Amino acid sequence: FFAYSSEMATENLIVNLTFNPPKLVFLGSVKKGALDALMSKLQAHLPQATSSSPGQKTALEFVYVDNPPHWTATLPTGYCNESVGQSQFMLILCDALETAADAGGGARSWKLKASDAQNHPDPTDDKKLQVTYKFYFVAKN
To answer: How many DSSP H helices and E strands does the chain contain?
Structure first.
């Protein structure tokens, strides 16, 4: 017999990522204000992982959507090549999530538990494939 208790509940976070332009979607235990320090770190470092020329870099802006509750962010003029840029972008993202509590501001750190990638038609061109990467995190205790 297994009894569920609220002490065993774990907060989860799913991050969906597509490239060119880079787009992030944060789903799960994401509350307004709780990600401020994390967002600042991502805003400072993720644009540097794109291979756009320096004058063309745009700011990474986070937008909260209520239904379903999630955060999105896009770098509209950003481009990440497959050989280095995409890996560097993912590394910065995972590092920021795993060390978020170090930045303070009530942020919590997350531990990567699984990842997945799915091919699907590019919404702007049916002849091209696009890859969506999914990262599954649980809150560190």
So the answer is: 2, 6
